[in-house]
Amino acid sequence: MSSTITISEPHLRQNIAAARRILGETDLLAVIKADAYGHGAALCAPLFARAGLPWLGVTDALEGAEVRKALQAAGFPEGPRILIMTAPPGDPDEANEAAELAVAHNLTPIVSAASQLAPLARAVAGTPHTLPIHVEIDSGMSRQGVPPGPVLRAFGEALLHYPKLHIDGVCTHLASAECTDAQQTLEQLQRFAMSSGDLSARADLMPAWRHLGNTSTLDNASPAAAEIIQHFALQTAQDGATPIVRCGLGLYGYSLPLEPDAPNEARLHSQLHPVLTWTTTVTAIEDVPAGARIGYSATYTARRPMRLALLPVGYADGLRRSLSSTNDEPGGWVMIGGHKAPVVGRISMNLTTVDVTHIDCGPGTPVTLLGPGATAEDHARLAHCLPYEILCGLRATYRVVLPDGAPTAGHAIA
């Protein structure tokens, strides 16, 4: 169960620079929710702060409090600002606790319903400050957000009863940014602009920030999609607010594929460098004869004498069981000494067997589980899932940062 996740600050900075080249004057909100997509939010937050990003996005108030502590310990007592990206809990006790954490750790909650206002107002009531909130508008994803029209106007009226809550920002989420025709995205953008105007109609509700987007928003190079960021930024600035685009997966070195057979190339993907390397070492070596049955349910039978290496990681650590192999269906692989070592048989909870017949190695030899030659995209393709799922599922014993200026063996995604 011993494995290490190493975070490359040079690669993180290169990915930030690539995103900024596409955005121009519009800045980034770095999404570090779900423990920074498995990279470690407490490790990554100070790296984003050093890169000068003004905002970080977390899952909930508890994660936000831990990130704030990590930033303070790293010498960033005031910034970046931290946005709670999931609406407050529905349970009253949990909502009150989350509101108190938000006030205590200078977090900015997203609000998506009028019923969520009262716990936040109670938490800030005994302080000399107001609590900034961001209002999420459901522009067409039908997931989280205040619906446009009468419900949104009623929300604005309800907010007037809570003078210590201040609308600092308004946002929405794009459902189909990876689609090249961008029709749904354009429709969402129009609804968002109209709804933002409804809130901004009153001077006391004028939000300072507007934000939307994701990695696919930056990556999609179709003519219609490429205009979206420019149009959004221009319109937001004309309304007196500051535009910002959220980005998560791309900052860690990956992006989603655009829709199949898309005629347009991705803008961001080829510039990205995976930030995370996941490694372990060989536990033991075993030579088995032809005919040996390997792993649970004997799904793999050696057809020749083989040398096997035992690794101290399995599906409980994030190495997907769907990367297992049979004699008829090859599975995943790891990298040892620059060579692919195929998974043999079923991946167990905390152990995995790989074929090293062709590799010179022994107990203690370094193994790359995710990194150059075995990327999260490789794993996702074999496991029929998304890179998000691979990265968010990692459970390493140790996490370390390769600092800016240090040499790195990583590479850009081909």
UniProtKB/TrEMBL annotation:
Binding site for substrate: R143, M349
Isomerase in keyword set: yes
Pfam families noted in UniProt: Ala_racemase_C, Ala_racemase_N
Record-annotated Alanine racemase C-terminal domain positions: 275-403
Endpoints of the signal sequence: none
A GO molecular-function descriptor: pyridoxal phosphate binding
Matching InterPro entries: Ala_racemase, Ala_racemase/Decarboxylase_C, Ala_racemase_C, Ala_racemase_N, Ala_racemase_pyridoxalP-BS, PLP-binding_barrel
Necessary cofactors: pyridoxal 5'-phosphate
PANTHER family: ALANINE RACEMASE, ALANINE RACEMASE, CATABOLIC-RELATED
NCBIfam families per record: alr
Protein name: Alanine racemase
The organism of origin for this protein: Granulicella pectinivorans
